[in-house]
Design a protein that fits this description.
By secondary structure, this protein is of the alpha+beta class. About 20% of the residues lie in helices and about 40% in strands.
């Protein structure tokens, strides 16, 4: 398996991506991934899986008198509803510790897969620390391209696109070198959002007079406002057309955005589109539309944070940590005055207000309602509910869609399985009362970045 080092993506991603918090320590994601589907023929699609394996996240250990870092990446694709496994591949990534320092290993894996419905799983392991596993899964649905209208592939986000690039590169396709960006993160260090997609059936039309397709590129912010727009018309001479673009991100405020590419038949006005989430990290850029200084001062003085004492403000931030990114945690640690902490926490929740036009910060209110619920229902051994494992999961991810409770099984200690059907295609959390004093600890989860242990059942077996 071939791959390349990309230093800029690593520096940008590790500055922004939050570490998953566990009692007694932190866990940094080992790998970021993305994927895109492309048409191959009438029977199969091409699945491309893009990955960035973080070298600094791997544990350095010694082998044959040499310090190395080593990771393992596994890809599984299973037919949905318990069908056949069509992909099962494992790749070993082992490098000299000095060579890999401060880098991220970016690569692409390609698989020919028959059209159908699948569940794909990505599992990364740190070979230097057996308990460090990062996993995720996603649904994969595809069907043959219609012979009646045009369609689009998935959008592939890229760190760079070089026309007429190196033909020997693993990223070379259709006369271009498309270097993937599996982090989906841009801004400081990666100032341009490059993207690639394919248009299929471009020459299919029900109106022979229509010889053009309208192509629109848009980058849209969290409140639905476009921050970048471009449109053009293309011919319909060919059945398949490659479309690439570049949206500037250097001056955008930190936050989430949606990249949107639409193709419209100029005669019938029939449209198809492809979209993907993009994240921007620009700590030096201030959003002038939402942070006018005078308005911010007034809002702060009217907030509950302006009146909080030292102990209360510390507890409030500790409760908020579950949704804090690592850069925010670092900033908090460097604050020296009570007033600075008050203003920081005010801005922290203001930046998460999904409806700034309303008087109430719905995101903050819902979050702290979950904190209160956790305190009422999940306290254990003198520990507040929001500090327990069940409380943390409830506060961070909300109410589960389903809870399986096993309080009195004959051969096991009490345990619960929480199901979240709307997160990452469906995830579970398994909690066990190992001490049988009501303190349910997290034993296993399929949620990315959470504790992953397929042997959790052994831990809850009764000793008698």
């Amino acid at each position: 398996m071939r791959a390349i080092y990309v230093a800029g993506i690593f520096a940008l991603a590790t500055a922004f991506v939050a570490s998953a918090q566990e009692e007694g320590g932190e866990q940094l994601y080992l790998v970021d991934y993305d994927h895109a589907r492309f048409q191959l023929d009438e029977e199969s699609m091409l699945l491309e899986v893009y990955y960035s394996f973080y070298q600094n996240a791997l544990t350095v250990f010694e082998r044959d008198g040499k310090e190395i870092i080593s990771g393992e990446l596994s890809v599984y694709v299973d037919e949905k509803d318990g069908g056949e496994r069509v992909v099962e591949r494992t790749y070993d990534l082992t490098y000299d510790a000095v060579e890999g320092a401060g880098q991220t290993l970016t690569g692409v894996l390609k698989y020919r897969i028959p059209y159908g419905e699948y569940v794909a799983s990505i599992v990364a392991r740190d070979n230097g620390a057996e308990d460090r596993i990062d996993s995720s899964s996603f649904d994969l649905v595809s069907a043959p391209v219609s012979d009646e209208t045009f369609e689009l592939s998935d959008l592939q986000l890229a760190a760079n696109i070089l026309k007429g690039g190196n033909e020997e590169s693993l990223f070379y396709k259709n006369t271009m070198e498309v270097v993937p960006n599996p982090t989906s993160l841009y801004g400081e260090g990666l100032p341009v959002v490059f993207f690639y997609l394919e248009i299929y059936g471009a020459n299919i039309t029900t109106d022979e007079s229509c010889d053009r397709l309208l192509v629109e590129h848009k980058l849209i912010d969290e409140i639905g406002q476009p921050v970048y727009e471009k449109e053009k018309v293309i011919g319909r001479e060919h059945a398949a057309v490659v479309e690439v673009g570049a949206a500037p991100a250097a001056k955008l405020p930190t936050g989430g955005y949606t990249l949107y590419v639409a193709v419209t038949d100029t005669a019938t006005e029939e449209s198809v589109y492809s979209a993907k989430r993009v994240y921007v990290y620009n700590p030096g850029v201030i959003d002038s539309a939402t942070r006018a200084e005078s308005a911010a001062d007034t809002d702060f003085l009217q907030s509950e944070f302006a009146q909080m004492g030292e102990e209360e403000i510390e507890e409030r931030f500790n409760q908020s940590k579950y949704v804090a990114v690592s850069d925010e945690t670092d900033q908090w640690e460097n604050l020296e005055t009570l007033d600075a902490k008050r203003k920081f926490l005010f801005e922290f929740w203001k930046n998460r207000d999904s409806k700034p036009e309303t008087e109430i910060n719905e995101a903050k209110r819902e979050y702290f309602e979950r904190v209160e619920y956790a305190d009422r229902n999940y306290d254990a051994l003198g520990k507040p509910g929001w500090k327990t494992d069940r409380g943390r999961v409830y506060v961070r991810y909300g109410e589960p869609d389903e809870i399986e409770r096993y309080p009195n099984q004959q051969d096991t200690k009490p345990y619960e399985i929480w199901h979240y059907n709307q997160i990452e295609g469906g995830v579970i959390f398994v909690f066990g009362d190992l001490t049988q004093f009501g303190n349910y600890m997290l034993l296993h989860s399929t949620m990315r970045g959470e504790l992953y242990d397929t042997n959790w059942m052994q831990r809850i077996r009764s000793a008698y």
